[in-house]
Amino acid sequence: MATIADRPAPSTTTGAKRPKPRRSKAGSLAERRPSFVVYGILIAFILGSAFPFYWSFLVASHDDGEFTSDAPLLPGGKFFVNAGRVLDTIPFWKALGNSILVSGTVTLSVVVLSTLAGFAFAKLRFKGRGPLMVFVVATLAVPTQLGVIPLYMAMAEYGWSGTLGAVIIPNLVTAFGVFWMRQYIADAVPDELIEAARMDGCSMIRTFWHVCLPAVRPAAAMLGIFTFMMSWNDFLWPLIVLNADNPTMQVALEKLQSGYYVDNSLVLAGTTMATVPILIVFLVLGRQIVAGIMQGAVKG
Amino acid sequence: MTTELTVTRGRGAEPRPPRRDDNDDIGPEKLGWRHRLTHLDVKFSPYLYIAPFFVLFALVGLFPLVYTAYVSLFDWELGADETPFVGIDNYTTLLADSQFWNAMVNTLSIFAISTIPQVIIAVLLAALLNTALRGRTGWRMGVLLPYVASLVALTIIFGDLFGVQYGTINDVLEAIGFGRIDWQADRWWSHIAIATMVNWRWTGYNALIVLAAMQAIPRDVYEAAWVDGASKVRQFISITLPMLRPTLIFVIVTSTIGGLQIFTEPLLFSPSAGTSGGATNQYQTVVLYMYESGFRSLNLGYASAMAWVLFLVIIVIAGINFLLTRRLASSGEA
Fold this sequence. Notes:
The complex is a heterodimer.
Chain A: H1 2-6, H2 13-16, H3 25-31, H4 36-60, H5 79-89, H6 92-123, H7 129-139, H8 148-157, H9 165-168, H10 175-188, H11 191-199, H12 204-215, H13 217-233, H14 236-241, H15 249-257, H16 264-299
Helix pairs in contact in A: 4-16, 5-16, 6-10, 6-13, 6-15, 7-10, 10-13, 11-12, 13-16, 15-16
Chain B: H1 2-8, H2 20-26, H3 28-71, H4 89-95, H5 98-129, H6 136-148, H7 151-161, H8 168-175, H9 187-215, H10 219-227, H11 232-259, H12 264-268, H13 286-295, H14 300-331
Helix pairs in contact in B: 2-3, 3-14, 5-9, 5-11, 6-9, 9-11, 11-14, 13-14
């Protein structure tokens, strides 16, 4: 980890824009087009990745009874009927709205607070900077999920259990976010620019706002995407602290499944409906998500 | 700002004396006040900016963990009026609790069969992605698809696929001549089913991390090996793998911390209500048992003791990984 972090991180976008393969022997070393076997394996892998999504939609578009004998392989026409039953069974729209509200608030807060802290750690000089940063990184390894019992007791004590605040507040800023932004700001914002702004009489916060923020937009956007997905998928804590009347999407899905008789077409219609928004986001932002993971890997 | 203005006014113009002299006339008091303010700004702003993280971590991260240790020393029932101090009773009960050990073995077992194949497949997949594919980004997005899916939704879908009677996986196994497998009642098969979900979700993600590390390996190293006549396989074993060590350890450490806290998959694997982790707890994990003790049996003291034991186990295993990292990373240096 350390050996890679010490090296200046190559921008991952260069991967896509690499010059065309040279004809020389040295060029043919790594740039030769792979054989159809490679494509075949990758296609098989991706089909395997996509299959559960297809299966979910397949079951959701048939009656539950149709799967007892020969399972159909093509989607049927019952999806909207099943989707309607989902809307009758769980407060789907409320759950969707809650999830958007929770993840949106958490994302905004994590991005702003992490960027602010990352700016301080990367560019400002203050006593204890080194040890405090080590502390931040060390907290990445602390399994805070194991502290849910006192957290629940505290939320119950203050009457916050069952409210969205109980899900939002513990996630307002993350160690990962601070670390991520620090790494990026250290490279992306030239010291001279900050000094120039200070010379012009900018206060710290104005320097942050006018010099640092514009330069870190790409990293902040990636942090936003990851935070949103992490928050959207959070399950243990929302399951503990929220109830069936005011759930997030994940909690509502769990309630859909936990009956005595399980109607698969109903349940998988619910999972399909919960998955489609995320898939749309992925199709739009997938390129950034891929770049973000690879960039984070090299830096971290 | 004023100095800027005079400069832009034109080259020929005689630069006016800087306005700063005028400011001095206002008096040393005001300047001192402003100066002091700037000084305070420089001195305290950094602490102000990093404060939110530390305050929040103290409140919702550190304090709950410490308080968990405190709660674990009491017979603390949710909603009870009295919570008598019992010392280490919860811990002695826990260490003699066969269900806890069962959960611990399940956790380690699922962790092992989800981490090892996952890392191997991720490295191979990264090697395939590291070739000169047409449309790279498309392939990368393709392998990442499972990562973005909602964990709850996917666990439910997999639970259906692994169904004993009507599940697709059993249908396929039967069609190609194998018998049907009881993915739910059989302890080890249920672990494999749950590990499959974990692997399905994380392999592509880890492959991208490994791929990034592969691309950071300088090309001239390969060119030198190629000149020396090393085959592709030889290059992979002698150059790629050693250079990937730090990244692999990173992947393993993060999947340790996550894998030992596995909860959603075993909770939702079998849809039958009332059971958590199977009828005979054959796939109940520690966090799931903790959840059941704390929030279904309402025995918060006991659940807290469990949380602390698991915390220590994670710290120990992560510590071993860390020492391993240092040794491997230093011996891997060329």
